[in-house]
């Protein structure tokens, strides 16, 4: 069956490779930081996609990997020309992290290192946190900021004294995914609570019924060290501790991604307000509706980067769901249909971004 997200996925991965090649080349050492401390398949998808792209470009594992909570002192033992890549996770400016955010700690401790924040949403809870970010970034001089939505790009360009570039979420580095065998399900809601921005899900489910999951609580067993990771690392790289840990973290990320993919696999239609719910639906060739308030970061990403795929429709409230559902394509006998007409997409000609992505200035 033809993949209706193929052009978008290829374009986004090519952009990620282009970004990474600005900082590393074949064989060059690098550091990868901000391994997810949670069980969210979306955050693990970002880590796995970035790990895949970095390995494709450099041909090697990172010389060090780390999470946001661990000590960053070990970086001083790595080669001085190894740039530090920070994987997107919680928003840059997140009030929960504040001045302890891993990005700020890295900039203060390693003023001479190249530090790259990979595509990320930026949101500050208050002005004092924004001012602190401005001072810290301005002091460092070798910090590169990548954003994944237009609002974040404009905020960064207006406030940060560093190079800023817009790019896709690193989850696209995984490429197209295959669903697992699963019992068919007409509609699935993959939703997270968003406070004042939340769309009324009860009203939505009264219009289009289906089970609801927040999908972020996978089993703890997925994060355990397994012999397979040790053996894989030993066969490829010997018994290097840092490379074993890097291989282990990549394998853990892959398990959590598989956990999310299994949840999505049986659904014919998916309704989500997760950015990574949208991205994984694209990678899995799943028709879906992105529900969010008007002007949200989710709809921003779709409008500027991924909306030319017929797999996604947008809705801003429960009342728009039914109309959006009717516009989604459906598969019958291996052929995609839309409005009862067969679709004959041609993946040979890559489509441009709907809105050209700004590049480093």
From TrEMBL:
Record-annotated Polysaccharide pyruvyl transferase domain positions: 68-294
Highest taxon of source: Bacteria
Extent of Pro residues compositional bias: 344-355
Positions of region (Disordered): 342-361
Protein name, as recorded: Exopolysaccharide biosynthesis protein
Origin species: Rhizobium anhuiense
